[in-house]
Design goal:
Length: 126
Amino acid sequence: MSWQAYVDNLVGSGKVDKAAIFSRAGDSVWCTTSGFSVAPAEVLELAKGFDDPSPLQAGGLHIAGQKYFLLRADDRSIYGKHEQSGIIAVRTGQAIIVGHYPEGVQPGEATKVVEALGDYLINANY
C-alpha cells in the first residue's frame, strides 16, 4: 500500500478531513491530502515536541498556519484543539501521522482512527 493510500483511508473514515505523513525526523513529507500544507518549520516543531513538549505547551502547536491549544503531548501522541476542530499526531518508529478533524466530529472518534493507523504502522515496524 502506498503512503497516499493510508492518508486517503484516514479521510475516507469521515472522522478526519485532512491528513499527512512525515518522516519521524520531520525532515520530509511522505504524503498529504490536497490543500493541507504544513510548513517545514511546523513539521520540525511537531517532531521535536514528541521528545520535549515544553515549547508546544508554552507557545501552542502550529499546523498548516493554524495555532492549536496543546491538549496532550508525550513520546507517542500529540493532540491540539482550535475552537471545534483539532489535530492528532502519532509518532511511529519511522513516521509521524497527522490527522485534522473538522467541526462536527467528536475528537475521540478522530483520535481512534489516527491512533489505530499508528498502531498498525508500529506493528509493521514503521
